[in-house]
């Protein structure tokens, strides 16, 4: 017990580890804020960079970057409507409208506090229930991943403002873009038009930077002459009353974040969108309408994507399996440092587990400090003349895209997606569903085929499994319920009931 | 600004010097090393561990660049397109050797110069701990009793599991349902959750899980027991005929374009040979579950040729590919 | 979708183009593996393409009954569309952006970025060259420090 406690507090008491965690968190915020610079990339560079370090020092820096980076994406989402990472796409839905109303400072303040709450809930779950939920992740069969992806895609219903048909079209378009490249089973090209460059597929961050960054830059060209909104910079730190008001919602969305984060292959991006959907369904009287600057629309995704970090660590620390791309690189780092990440890690090297837990909590504290620092300066960023801001955004989009895969072809694609996004925006299509489709389409395709292969290509057998396995049954019912909720069927049913009651 | 200008000037200058034939001072600038697999994967791990030692031996800086996608076609093609000046190196795995027969690309490693074949992994056939079969012979019997019902995890055409499957089918019969995963990781997760029945894995990926009893090893793809997995029988016990393909395993190597100047090649060969032989790196390989090879020159080329010929011909025999290997210039083993 | 009764200029053309695009996607999806099996590489893409076609058709059907925009014929509509969404400023900026991408491969990343930033800021602000030079220099320095030094990103 005392040993556990000493591991837990290791990062808090050693000045060097303290400093490295702080440094990591600080750097992470800015890495996360720049689209194209991803946490995965930062961590994999750190792995070679910290090669000769003590393993604890390296892990402290990595944890800081991870926590800071996931949060940092919200900065650019709120200020510029360009999510720094896919997990911040949902943050832009209500964050950017807030910035346009002069509340950028308040939005950043709230998102910081909420990220910290989410991060701490994630850490707490990791510390208290890691082995249990690690085993839960193993129960997900391919068919269950298929159902999770289906639930994710059904979010289109709540993401698509206005026309559902346009939302569905956008999601399908995204899915097709996500499917471009080599088929993972047969190695056959799909939608590659015979181009070698397209065999590797189109990275969805390329799509995201184009649709949000470039399209927004072109859109803003119309508003070149309107003076930027003056930003209110008082009351940046949310009051306790406000935090308490959102606490029930934030705990619920944090739990969504942890659970989704635990599943390998599904991460903070989906968690944030699911949490946004949850907020939209359950909050009856938001501060402002959703999509127009609802604080709830900011709380949900920010808590969920931060909580997903704790979740992603669960399979890594309990089983040696990566929960997402970042933990995959961290596993690599552990291997390079001579540790054996696997089911015995917690038994043979318990210090790694408790050290990580303590370190995650510490990084969240630093996040609170650094996140609330310099907000005024950032809010002023929005007040920069558009004539300067727009070219800067374009250059950042180019550098960001290039640094993903060092591919100039992808930069051209990014610009093309920018034009496409601009046109779609003009005609009232939403960008969110496209990203959703691009992330979930490939997951749905592979899990569908895995599920089909598992039952020997027998659809009847697959259907039987969907309703007989307990986990699948729960997920199937969720899909059916959401489908009914999206179509007007359920509403009609409710109306009839009410009418009958009134008459009776 | 000054810095930017200076960098611009430096880049311009280095472009100029490229045109000159003198390579006496190689490396004069940082070397771009392309890893055609994603960050955190086995190839990435090996290369990121090895590179610091190579940097020390060579006295230059490497910029490691992950260019994943398309079974490493994207990254390898990129290196093929760069100038043959030794400033772009491919740090890859075995996959390009199968490109001609899988119709993925028109080139293979014979279009590159092998600087070093670093090491090789051992293959393990793994199953969940409570699977009804414990040896390769029992697995084969179970598959024969109920053909096309057992679920085998694979990683797609050209991946390790399907290659091993082809080898087994070339000498015996193993009819199964193939469930394809995005890589070792998701496959192992499904294996532990018992959503698939068995999967051929690299020792590096399976070692810890077998050691901790989460998975059990049915056989290792060797002719003798391996020290890392004592008590696990070699596959030749159940399938003696497979020995003609052994030793076999996925490998890692460093490559440059064939027309790179000889003095540059020689410098790289020396640096890599010393770096791979480094005790600390050898310790890493051992812990990783891989066997060191450290092959250079003619030895490396012979290794590549044999690997390609053994693998493709066994795949052809098992009808896993429809192109005859000799039609794309691969001789019979 | 804004529930105005009037169609946007070019909306009908755009929606029909989307429908046509969906049909092309269906054709490409069919080409992958035909209707060979429910577990073929082309099965899921075919399904997605069908969803695309249905939703695009629905978008087109929704347009029926909406009032036509005020324009005289096809040519006038084109011109109105261009004026509304692609004014001269947008076109020139887009041209600058494309030229910038092309220049990256010719004259290195840093040189082309500097030119692009100075040119576009000067153009969009209508003058003030000194300010543009300063901003461009600052951003380049930042990119150099962040990407080249800290992240060792290989910039062309």
List keywords for this structure.
heterotrimer; A: 504 residues; mainly alpha; two-stranded antiparallel ribbon; 24 helices; 2 strands; 75% helix; globular; C: 156 residues; 6 helices
The dominant shape of chain C is flat
Please trace the helix and strand order of chain A, writing H or E for each element: HHHHHHHHHHEEHHHHHHHHHHHHHH
Strand content of chain A: under 5%
Instruction: Tell me the domain tally of chain C.
Output: 2
What percentage of the residues of chain C does DSSP assign to strands (E)?
under 5%
User: Pairing-aware structural class of the strands and helices of chain A?
Assistant: mainly alpha
Task: Identify the quaternary structure here.
Answer: heterotrimer
Radius of gyration of chain A: 22 Å
Largest sheet of chain A: 2 strands, antiparallel
Rg of chain C is: 23 Å
N-to-C span of chain C: 42 Å
Q: How many domains, in number, for the residues of chain A?
A: 1
Q: Please describe the biggest sheet of chain C, giving its number of strands, its sense, and whether it closes into a barrel.
A: none
Low-confidence stretches of chain C: none
> Helical residue percent of chain C?
over 70%
Number of helical segments with 4 or more residues of chain C: 6
Q: What share of residues of chain A is helical?
A: over 70%
Alpha-carbon distance between the termini of chain A?
64 Å
Shape descriptor of chain A reads: globular
Fold topology:
The complex is a heterotrimer of chains A (504), B (333) and C (156).
Chain A: H1 2-8, H2 10-13, H3 15-33, H4 39-49, H5 55-80, H6 89-100, H7 104-138, H8 142-154, H9 156-159, H10 164-179, E1 181-182, E2 189-190, H11 204-220, H12 240-262, H13 268-282, H14 296-319, H15 325-336, H16 345-348, H17 350-372, H18 375-381, H19 386-405, H20 408-426, H21 432-454, H22 459-468, H23 470-486, H24 489-503
Antiparallel strand pairs in A: 1-2
Chain B: H1 2-19, E1 31-35, H2 42-58, E2 62-66, H3 73-81, E3 88-93, H4 99-102, E4 112-121, E5 123-128, H5 136-145, E6 151-154, H6 160-171, E7 177-180, H7 184-192, E8 199-202, H8 203-211, E9 215-220, E10 251-257, H9 262-277, H10 279-288, E11 290-295, H11 297-317
Parallel strand pairs in B: 1-2, 1-3, 6-7
Antiparallel strand pairs in B: 3-10, 4-10, 4-11, 5-8, 5-9
Chain C: H1 11-33, H2 43-63, H3 73-85, H4 88-107, H5 109-125, H6 129-150
Helix pairs in contact in C: 1-2, 4-5, 5-6
């Amino acid at each position: 017990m005392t040993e556990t406690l000493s591991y837990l507090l290791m990062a808090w008491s050693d000045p060097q580890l303290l400093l490295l965690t702080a440094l990591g968190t600080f750097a992470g915020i800015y890495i996360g804020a720049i689209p194209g610079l991803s946490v995965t990339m930062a961590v994999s560079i750190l792995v070679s960079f910290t090669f000769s370090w003590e393993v604890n020092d390296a892990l402290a820096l990595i944890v800081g970057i991870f926590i800071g980076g996931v949060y940092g994406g919200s900065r650019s989402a709120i200020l510029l409507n360009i999510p720094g990472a896919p997990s911040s796409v949902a943050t832009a839905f209500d964050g950017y409208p807030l910035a346009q109303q002069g509340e950028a400072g308040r939005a950043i303040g709230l998102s910081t506090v909420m990220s910290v709450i989410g991060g701490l809930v994630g850490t707490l779950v990791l510390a208290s229930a890691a082995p249990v939920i690690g085993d839960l992740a193993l129960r997900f069969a391919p068919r269950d991943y298929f159902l999770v992806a289906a639930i994710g895609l059904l979010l289109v219903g709540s993401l698509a403002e206005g026309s559902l048909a346009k939302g569905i079209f956008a999601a399908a378009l995204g899915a097709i873009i996500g499917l471009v490249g080599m088929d993972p089973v047969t190695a056959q090209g799909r939608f590659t038009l015979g181009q070698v460059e397209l065999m590797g597929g189109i990275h969805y961050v390329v799509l995201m930077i184009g649709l949000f960054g470039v399209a927004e830059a072109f859109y803003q060209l119309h508003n070149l002459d309107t003076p930027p909104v003056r930003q209110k910079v008082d009351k940046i730190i949310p009051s306790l009353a406000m935090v308490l008001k959102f606490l029930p919602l934030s705990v619920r969305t944090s739990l969504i974040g942890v659970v989704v984060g635990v599943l390998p292959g599904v991460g903070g991006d989906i968690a944030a969108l699911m949490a946004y959907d949850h907020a939209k369904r359950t909050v009856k009287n938001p501060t402002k309408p959703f999509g127009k600057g609802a604080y709830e629309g900011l709380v949900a995704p920010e808590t969920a994507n931060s909580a997903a970090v704790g979740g992603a660590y669960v399979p890594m620390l309990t089983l040696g399996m990566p929960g997402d791309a970042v933990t995959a690189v961290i596993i690599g780092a552990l291997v390079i440092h001579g540790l054996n990440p696997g089911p015995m890690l917690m038994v043979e090297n318990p210090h790694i587990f408790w050290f990580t837990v303590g370190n995650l909590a510490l990084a969240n504290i630093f996040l609170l400090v650094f996140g609330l620092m310099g907000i005024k300066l950032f809010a002023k960023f929005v007040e920069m003349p558009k004539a300067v801001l727009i070219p800067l955004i374009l250059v950042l989009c180019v550098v960001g895209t290039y640094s993903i895969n060092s591919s100039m072809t992808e930069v051209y694609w990014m610009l093309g997606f920018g034009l496409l996004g601009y046109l779609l925006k003009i005609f009232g299509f939403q960008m969110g569903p496209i990203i959703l489709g691009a992330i979930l389409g490939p997951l749905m395709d592979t899990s569908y085929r895995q599920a089909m292969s598992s039952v020997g290509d027998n659809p009847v057998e697959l259907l039987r499994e969907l309703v007989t396995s307990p986990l699948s049954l729960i997920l199937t019912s969720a899909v059916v319920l959401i489908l009914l909720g999206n179509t007007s069927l359920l509403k009609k049913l409710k109306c009839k009931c009410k009418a009958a009651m009134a008459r009776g | 600004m000054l810095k930017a200008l200076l960098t611009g000037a430096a880049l311009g200058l280095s472009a100029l010097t490229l045109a000159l034939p003198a390579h006496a001072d190689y490396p004069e600038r940082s070397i771009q090393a392309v890893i055609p697999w994603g960050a955190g994967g086995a190839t990435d791990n090996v290369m990121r561990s090895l590179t610091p030692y190579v940097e020390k031996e060579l006295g230059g800086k490497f910029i490691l660049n992950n260019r994943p996608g398309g079974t490493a076609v994207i990254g390898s093609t990129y290196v093929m397109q760069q100038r043959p000046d030794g400033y772009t190196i491919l740090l890859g795995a075995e996959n390009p050797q199968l490109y001609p027969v899988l119709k993925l690309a028109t080139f293979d490693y014979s279009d590159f110069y092998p600087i070093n074949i670093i090491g090789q992994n051992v293959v393990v056939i793994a199953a969940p701990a409570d699977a009804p079969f414990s040896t390769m012979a029992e697995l084969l019997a179970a598959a024969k009793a109920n053909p096309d019902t057992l679920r085998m995890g694979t990683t797609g055409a050209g991946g390790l599991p399907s290659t091993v499957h082809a080898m087994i089918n070339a000498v015996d019969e193993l009819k199964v349902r193939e469930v394809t995963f995005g890589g070792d990781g998701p496959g192992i997760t499904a294996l532990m959750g018992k959503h698939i029945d068995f999967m051929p894995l690299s020792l590096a990926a399976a070692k810890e899980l077998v050691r901790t009893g989460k998975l059990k090893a049915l056989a290792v793809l060797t002719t003798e027991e391996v020290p890392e997995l004592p008590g696990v029988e070699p596959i030749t016990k159940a399938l003696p005929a497979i020995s003609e393909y052994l030793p076999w395993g996925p490998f890692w190597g460093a490559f440059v374009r064939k027309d790179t100047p000889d003095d540059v090649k020689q410098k790289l060969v020396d640096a890599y040979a010393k770096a791979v032989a480094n005790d600390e790196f050898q310790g890493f390989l051992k812990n990783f579950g891989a066997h060191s090879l450290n092959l250079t020159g003619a030895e490396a080329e012979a290794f590549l040729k044999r690997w390609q010929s053994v693998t493709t011909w066994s795949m052809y025999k098992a009808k896993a590919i429809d192109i005859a290997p000799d039609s794309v210039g691969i001789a019979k083993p | 979708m804004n529930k105005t009764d009037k169609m946007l200029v070019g909306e009908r053309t755009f929606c029909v183009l989307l429908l046509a695009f969906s049909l092309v996607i269906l054709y490409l999806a069919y080409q992958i593996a035909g209707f060979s099996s429910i577990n073929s590489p082309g099965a899921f893409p075919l399904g997605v393409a069908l969803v695309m076609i249905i939703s695009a058709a629905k978008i087109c059907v929704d347009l029926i009954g909406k009032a036509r925009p005020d324009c005289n014929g096809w040519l006038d509509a084109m011109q109105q569309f261009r004026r509304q969404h692609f004014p001269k400023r947008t076109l020139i900026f887009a041209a600058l952006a494309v030229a910038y991408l092309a220049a990256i491969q010719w004259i290195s990343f840093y040189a082309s970025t500097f030119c692009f930033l100075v040119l576009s800021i000067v153009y969009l602000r209508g003058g003030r060259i000194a300010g543009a030079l300063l901003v461009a220099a600052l951003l380049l320095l930042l990119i150099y420090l962040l990407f080249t030094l800290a992240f060792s990103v290989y910039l062309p």
